[in-house]
Design brief:
Helix content is 62%, strand content 5%. It is mainly alpha-helical. Strand 1 and strand 2 (42-48) form a beta hairpin. The longest helix is centred in the middle third of the chain and has 49 residues, at 205-253. The model is unreliable at 20-29 (pLDDT under 50).
Length: 565
């Protein structure tokens, strides 16, 4: 257990060997993760509890933490931050009141000056709690932590205090005294003045905003440049120049019915589009996005961006901490919606969930937009993202005025600025690429196969005919553009990728992109919304995004038609 940003997930991964994503910002671990660890020859189940600042049960993360303590575990490892000892000790003193054998792992010991934290003095204030200095990243002190934990597992606590009274308990005076004694008057930081100077600069409007714009521009350049280069010069020549001709020749030589051949290598052939769309058109941008995102989160810049944008976001009814789930949404909407659990009110959860579902394209859909628009016009691509931001601001203001309830502020933890760790970044990219193959590419291939079958059965033609008045008269798109609207229910990027094979004008490209941007989230996101916020909210999201998509697309198409004439 421990506060957000103290390295719990890294330590958990080192002790269990499990691949747990460790992000340098609050809200990464919303649900607990379980794994098996060995302490002194004993095989134990180790659980990574959601990061929490207190046990007052003010949000879902704190409620989960309290519930797990009430389940009377055999021992608790509380992870403290050597750079912010006092705040961690306040949480530790609350945990101590449960009467459970407890070990304090003082993490990031490698980032403080040697010998500045006196663990013996700290243990005197904690009355029986053993303290171990560790570095989760380098592995320093892990062997000692395993040994001390094994000793605590054999210790029978004199009394377990289930559901202790914490409301009137103030841990801060004792935490302050313990930290002061352990530090001996030192703040424990290495290069404190430099870090504090940059902390102030990054969260101040000047130069914080110009730096933020430069960082976002750099991220955008890396994602587009690296993804497009890998796609254009490596993947497409390999697939279109070698693999696809071989597949087409091989399938054509087989004695298959015409319908089966078309399903495999036809207009929606699963052996052609099922490889090209998820792997050649989307996957390069998935990799480049997560590489850039991993650099931002591992360096500690993301929470500073959240603090910088706090004033702007409060006008939308959400605080700066909402930057985290919104940015997660640009990777995948599902963890973004789950990360809203850490927000302090239901109103903020609703607003952020709506914004993610309505105006935040996931990385796969972003890759599809880049594949569709970037080579045609970077200006058109930029316009789509400007529309996304405009819709986000408009929807936020509207939801803030319509939804009841308050939007309380929270204290945002700023982890230390650190140089990114190449090994950890590589591991994150690998894990997220692996996740994309299972959660992104596999459903996309199934949807393409279904579309190929429906196309050969004539069902897509029938649906296109039924939707023709809506698609051709309001959106001014070809009738076959109804197909991606159906496929997009499975995966958001499938509302975009089929447009690549249509000869569309500039206005039609923009219209199709706007409809795809605002269209209903994929079915997995809808299920997540229903589980997190209720079926009524999920139905409202389905209806609201569909109406907004067609309304926005109609405005763009009709206005574009008027301007062209």
């Amino acid at each position: 257990m421990g506060m957000p940003n103290v390295g719990k997930s890294v330590l958990f991964g080192k002790l269990t060997g499990l691949n747990v994503a460790a992000a340098n910002f609050a809200g990464t671990t919303v649900e607990y993760t379980a794994g098996t660890a060995t302490f002194g020859g004993q095989h134990c189940e180790l659980q990574d509890v959601p990061g929490t600042y207190s046990l007052q049960a003010g949000n879902q993360a704190e409620q989960v933490a309290v519930q797990m303590l009430n389940d009377t575990p055999d021992a608790v490892i509380v992870v403290l931050d050597a750079l912010n000892l006092e705040a961690g000790l306040a949480l530790l003193l609350q945990i101590q009141r449960f009467g459970i054998p407890t070990i304090a792992a003082v993490n990031r010991i490698d980032l403080v000056d040697p010998d500045t934290i006196n663990l013996e003095h700290l243990e005197r204030h904690l009355h029986g709690i053993r303290c171990v200095a560790v570095s989760a990243v380098s592995g320093q002190g892990l062997a000692t932590l395993r040994q001390v934990t094994a000793e605590q597992l054999t210790y029978n606590a004199p009394s377990r205090n289930k559901e202790p009274e914490l409301e009137d308990f103030d841990p801060w005076p004792a935490a302050e005294a313990a930290a002061a004694d352990a530090l001996g008057g030192s703040d424990g930081h290495s290069h404190t003045s430099v870090r504090r100077t940059w902390d102030h600069r990054l969260v101040a409007p000047m130069p914080g905003i110009p730096i933020a714009l430069a960082v976002m521009a750099a991220v955008f350049t890396v994602v587009i440049g690296a993804g497009m280069g890998f796609r254009r010069f490596v993947l497409l020549p390999l697939l279109r120049g070698a693999l696809f001709p071989a597949i087409t020749t091989w399938i054509s030589a087989l004695p298959l019915p015409d319908a089966a051949t078309a399903i495999l290598i036809g207009d929606y052939g699963v052996l052609i589009k099922g490889i090209e769309w998820p792997f050649a058109l989307v996957f390069p941008y998935v990799i480049s996005f997560y590489a850039a995102f991993a650099l931002l989160e591992d360096s500690g810049y993301l929470p500073r961006l959240a603090a910088l944008l706090d004033g702007i976001f409060r006008r939308l009814g959400i605080g700066g901490s909402s930057v985290i789930p919104l940015l997660l949404g640009y990777g995948c909407g599902i963890p973004a919606i789950m990360a809203t659990r850490a927000l302090p009110s239901r109103k903020q959860r609703l607003i952020v969930t709506w914004l993610v579902c309505l105006s935040v394209p996931c990385v796969s859909q972003t890759g599809a937009f880049i594949a569709l628009l970037a080579e045609y016009s970077l200006g058109l691509l930029g316009l789509v993202f400007l529309i996304s931001i405009a819709v986000m601001i408009t929807a936020g203001l509207l939801l803030d005025s319509l939804l009841p309830g308050a939007s309380p502020g929270i204290v945002l933890e700023l982890p230390p600025l650190l140089p990114p760790n190449g090994r950890i970044i590589g591991k994150k990219i690998w894990m997220r690429a692996h996740s994309y193959l299972y959660d992104g590419a596999a459903p996309m291939i199934v949807a393409i196969l279904a579309a190929a079958v429906l196309y050969e059965l004539g069902i897509l033609y029938w649906i296109g005919t039924a939707m023709e008045p809506l698609v051709t008269r309001l959106l001014l798109l070809p009738s076959e553009a109804s197909v991606p609207l159906l496929m997009g229910i499975v995966r958001r990027e499938l509302t975009v990728l089929p447009l690549l094979d249509m000869q569309l004008s500039t206005i039609q490209l923009l219209t199709g992109s706007v409809v795809a941007l605002l269209y209903i989230p994929c079915i997995a996101m809808v299920v997540t919304v229903a589980r997190e916020l209720g079926i009524k909210i999920a139905i409202a999201v389905l209806a609201g995004t569909t109406l907004t998509a067609f309304a926005g697309g109609t405005v763009v198409a009709q206005l574009g038609g008027i301007l062209l004439h």
